[in-house]
Structures are given as structure tokens and as C-alpha cells.
Sequence to fold (235 residues):
Amino acid sequence: MFPTYAEFVLRADAVRAQVAAACAAAGRDPTTVELLAVTKTHPVAAADFAARYGLRAVGENRVQEAAEKRPLCAAPALAWELIGHLQSNKSKLAAQHFDRVQSVDSEKLLNHLDRAAAELGKVLPILFQVNAGNDPAKFGADLADTPRLVEFARTKKNLRLDGLMTIAPLGSTPAETAEHAVRTFTNLRTLRDDLAARLGVPLRELSMGMSSDLAPAIAAGSTQVRVGSALYGAR
Ligand SMILES: *Cc1c(COP(=O)(O)O)cnc(C)c1O
Fold:
């Protein structure tokens, strides 16, 4: 059942308490970890709730769904971020309807989005998605290809690379899933630190961690956790 706003507030407070606990355990300042509310498949009220609660942004998986919902949203200042796989033929639409695209993972997509942003006369913020857990079922660039692609991204005048994004693979047991999470998030953090030092750019944003794996992501340096089901219920 989709929550009422009062239920949403209780859940969001609980997620923020989890974030605060993970930050305390990692010796981090909780204000350095943003909560991105993942509103995919939910009615536009999900985005309205997020804005009313004071969140900066929501995450959506599909370009078309966001393009339909966004004009109905009562909060014009709310930012919308694309976190789902993007086909290059939807680049124009994505550059039009999103404030940031987190799922950029190829040279082709970099070229298409840069051209689309140029046509719209804007600079589009992006994250580069890395398959940091080497999951055969996941999108994202291979860890080994990422340095070259990040350097290429930085040559694109109408894109602004804010950092990296990843999704941890599921294991066949909870223990295996937990191991994958630690390995995936540590890989992304290490890669970011290496690239930042080598290229002399901060690549500040590390979008990693979801409802079920917030804590290991925060321990590894996440700056943004993407949370859907813990806020809005099962999809
Ligand atoms: C759906 C989704 C989330 C949110 O997952 P929950 O388990 O509902 O918190 C986060 N990141 C991405 C990329 C997603 O597609």
C-alpha cells in the first residue's frame, strides 16, 4: 500500500536514523550522505512527499515515466535524477527531463548526451555508472574501462562529471550478498580515489547503497544512498 504523508515521514525518519548510525560507525558526518528518494513506479505523490520532507531530489528509472510525472509534481524546485539504464536514442529526452543522469556507462552515450545537451543549450550533470561488482547481469562500464571513459567524459563540454555510481550484485545467500556489497563499494571508492588523484578532479559524488545495503555503502564512502522500498513500500 502506498503510504500517507504521515507514514512516509516515519519511514524517512527511520532511514535517516539508519544513515546516521552508519555514519557514526564509520566516523563520518551524516550531512555528507544525501538521501535520494527513488519514486519509480509510484504516483507523483511520492515526489511531492520527498519535496515536502525537504529532500533535494528524486530518482527515476525510466525517461518516459519521469517525463509524464514531472509536470504534475507540485514542487518545481525538486531535482529529478535518472538512475535506470538509458538507451542512446532517448538521450535528447533524458537531457530535457532530468537534472542529472547517473546511468552513463559508454562512449556512445557520452557522445549522444553531450550533443543533446548542446542542442538544449545546457550543461548536463552526470555520474558515470561502473559495474564495480563485475556482475554479468548489471549495466555499467567495466572497472578496467572506466579510467579511459572518465577521461573521455571530461572532454565533453556540455557534460559535467560529478562522480561515480554503482549497484552491488545480489548473491545467492544473504552472506554472499553482503560480501558482494562490501567488495563492490570498496572497488568504486578505490577507483574514484585513484582517478581523482591522477586527473586532479574531485569526482565528489559516490552514488551507492540502496534500502538493503546502506551501511556498507556509507562505510565505503557513499555520498548518496538511493532508497525506494524503505520509503514507499514494495513495488
Ligand atoms: C530501484 C532502484 C533503487 C532503489 O531500490 P530499493 O531497494 O527500492 O531501495 C536504487 N538504485 C537503483 C539504480 C534502482 O533501480
Remarks:
- Residues 5-232 form a domain with the TIM Barrel fold (CATH 3.20.20.10).
- Strands lie at 34-38, 57-60, 79-82, 100-104, 124-129, 159-165, 205-207, 224-227.
